[in-house]
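Box 3.1. Reading complex inputs
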Amino acid sequence: MRWTWFHRLASPPYLYALAARLTPWFAWPAALLILGGLYAGLVLAPPDYQQGEGFRIIYVHVPSAWMSLMVYVTMGVAAAVGLIWRMKVAHAVAASCAPIGASFTVAALVTGSLWGKPMWGTYWVWDPRLTSELILLFLYLGFMGLRAGFDDTQRADRSAALLAIVGMVNVPIIHYSVIWWNSLHQGPSVMRLGKPTMPPAMLVPLLVLLLGFTLFFAAVLLVRVRAEILQRERAARWIGETLRA
Amino acid sequence: MSAFLDMGGYAAFVWPAYLVTLAVLVLNIIWARKSLARALQAARRRTAAAGEDS
């Protein structure tokens, strides 16, 4: 096994240039998939036999909720890599993840609440799924607040990384909350063992959106990582050389 | 068209949900580009200042 790619990624100028080059390759497919998926979800997918047209909230709620978890896992893994191998750019990735993840956690909570009102009769209940998702938002905000509390980037990196790693226990709790506890929230219908419980006409737009949102995250992350690297490497000579080039 | 906008009576929930999600998508693009623009500006200022020193 050759690890040269790993070492190259750890080099700030290499990652900076790579991120700039890769961004459009994620951004444009993401834009097409999201627009196509939203159109399919709003127009092409048939209404649900129980929830009628109201079920269409699924096409914004599930991708947002997926992002809230996927971004957190990315952040936690990056933080762990940064802590274990003392890799600065990994901390830059973790720091870039937090505002993205926090914003989609808000979207998941708000869209969920807007879905809950007509279907459950309430905007909010202290249900295991809803509560653990709210804790996820606090983990993101705590991570960002902790970073902002340090003047020294290295100490901010290390403390925030610890918080991110400890907070990872919340991820399986959110996912399995609807199975472990009696929850008002419905069980998994896409990410489950065996077949999904939705017909293809409803499922395909959702899968398109899940992929689109994931690529969107990659594109936004790459832009943010470049900003982080520029700030962290402000004393480095390669920046002047890159900017002049 | 008005039937579509009515969303089978769920308009008051479906459209705000889509609006919030679209807003989060757009804001993420704006915030990310802004942070990169700011970082680039600061880096350019520093390189210019360093160039004058030498």
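In summary: Chain B touches chain A through 32 residues (CB under 8 Å).
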